[in-house]
Structures are given as structure tokens and as C-alpha cells.
Amino acid sequence: MNRLRSAALAVVIAVGACGAAVAQAPGPPPADPGPPLSGYPRNALRPPTPAELKTATYVRDVIYGHRDGMALTYDVFKPVKNANGALVVNMVSAGWRSSWAPPEERQARYQALIDKGFTVVALYHSSAPRFQVPDAVADVRLGMRHIKLHAADYGADPARIGVWGASAGGHLALVAGMMADDGDPAAANPLERLGNRVAAVVAYFPPTDLAILLRGLPKAGPIAFDDKLMASVSPIHSVDASDPPTLILHGDADRGVPPAQSEAMHAALDSAGVENRLTMFPGADHDFYVKGDPARTDAYATQAMAAMVAWFESHVGKSSASARSED
């Protein structure tokens, strides 16, 4: 699978001569910086401004479990003003590599949600190349139990939690949605006795059926696990009528995760009667990348982020009591 990369938008401006609107020879085409990281728009990949840093406070390095003696953590971004009581969990994962960064460096990626009053959680899992996909799946399912248990501590309603991710993170967002449960009363870990169901999912270009996606690929790094486990880590095999409303966004020219992966999930959700929507971006490769057209790439990434925020506003942004009062 293609790794996620960074993006920028170049702008070429015609310059007048001597104060007159004089036509000039066209300049060089804008540079193509390559695919954007995880399909983020350019504006979300910059450092946050001093003003933006004042819009959120952080709960740092919350430990939700351990693997091989190492802590599994998440960071919480709490809006300073106009908190709406809902929470969105971002699955930090690219190629099932979960790269930690200080909240101050990551905040711009979540600013569109913070500005709408959402509490945001950056959830990290045990990372490739040391750990494999089944480890990541187990970690995020455990992490969601911890987040739901403590949502009220972060000013959020545990019944109004959404999950979102891109590529491997999109796979894990679907895992959180489709593979959720009400807990195991007999579990040795008290956290495993708690439910981890969520209210909405957004997934960008997600793997959904790993047996098909990984067929024939060398067994290395995060995908070097037993083929017998493929179904257990593929969210398409866990779809049922209890699943949350799901938005899937994908480029129709994606060579890293073929669009058929999202089309199959869309069909499965339709068959189960689950509210869902699949949006395809024409000509977009993985990460919404359109080679040689940075403006179109950024437009797609910006459109995707707006759709993600709107989905969460619609499905978890208001309490059920508020929604009833507006009917």
C-alpha cells in the first residue's frame, strides 16, 4: 500500500507591468508536491496559529492500556468555547504505523472540528513495523472503551462519539464502528467488560476486506500475520443492522486501496439497512491525490474535510434532546 505523504497548493499570479494590465508569457506550472498526508487539505498540515492554540486545552498522554510493557495512549483536545458535548476520535494510523506528535503540532488537523465545538481525541495504537494489524485492531477497540468510559471527564456525552480515520486509520475507524460490542462480563480486564459502541463513522479510502486487498503481497511488517485472522480484522465481515451511520470518501483512481474496497462496504451497509453514503472523487488516487494538479488535490481534500465535519454535526453534534426540540 502507498504510504501517506504531505501536500501543498501552489498559486501562480500574473503580474502587471508599469501599472498596466499587460499580458505576459505564462510562467512555469505550479509545483506538484505529491500526495497530501492522509488526505488532509494544505491548510490543516501547517502549524497552528497562536490564536488557534488558544481555542483548545489538552489532556495529554492518557494511558488506556499496555502492550509488551509499553503504554498505549491518546491525547484529548477540548474546545475552550462553545463545546457541543460531542467527541470525535481520530485513528492516528498510516500503513498501521501510529506516529505520535505533540498536541501543539497536531491541532491544525483538528481545528475544523474544534471550531464547531467538538472534543477531539487523537488515538494511538501499537505501531508497525514491530506490531501487526491484529494488534492495532485490538488496541483501538480497547481504546474506545476507555474513551467512552471517560468521555464525561472530557466534557463529552459517551452516547455522542464519532470515529474518523484515513487509509489504515479509515480501516480502524470502520473497525471501531462495525466491530463494536457491549463488553464481555467475564473479561479479566475490567475495561473489556465495558461497551465501545459509537454513534457515527467517517472513513477516507479505507481497507475493508484485507483478504482481498493483501492477496499476493509479501508478508512483511504490519501485514505479516496469519491469513486465518484476515476475516477477524476486516470490518466488512462484521456489518450488521446495529452499525452506526457511516460516510466513506474515496478516489475512483486509487491504486493503493482500490475503490472496490469502499464499494463493497457500501453495498454491505446498504444490505444491512445501515445509513451510509459513499462519495467518489473523480480522477483521485490515494490520499485524494491528482497527479500534476495540486489545486484539484487540495480542493478534494478540503471537500472531504467539510463533508466529515458535516457528517459529525448531523449525527453526533446535537444531543437527542436538542434534536427533538427542533422537530
Structure description:
The chain has 327 residues and is of the alpha/beta class. It has a single domain, classed as Rossmann fold. 28% of the residues lie in helices and 17% in strands. It is built from eight helices and eight strands; from the N terminus they run H-E-E-E-H-E-H-E-H-E-H-E-H-E-H-H. An eight-stranded mixed β-sheet has the order 1-2-4-3-5-6-7-8, sandwiched between helices. Strand 5 (161-166), helix 4 and strand 6 form a beta-alpha-beta unit. The longest helix has 22 residues, at 294-315. The model is unreliable at 1-23 and 323-327 (pLDDT under 50).
Distance between the termini: 46 Å
Helix content: 25-40%
Mean pLDDT: 90
Assigned CATH architecture: 3-Layer(aba) Sandwich
Task: Give structural attributes.
17% strand, alpha/beta, disordered N terminus, Rossmann fold, disordered C terminus, 8-stranded mixed β-sheet, 327 residues
Briefly characterize the structure.
By secondary structure, the protein is of the alpha/beta class.
Lay out the secondary structure.
Layout: H1 50-53, E1 56-67, E2 70-79, E3 87-91, H2 103-114, E4 119-123, H3 133-150, E5 161-166, H4 168-178, E6 200-204, H5 210-213, E7 246-251, H6 259-272, E8 276-281, H7 294-315, H8 320-326
Parallel strand pairs: 3-4, 3-5, 5-6, 6-7, 7-8
Antiparallel strand pairs: 1-2, 2-4
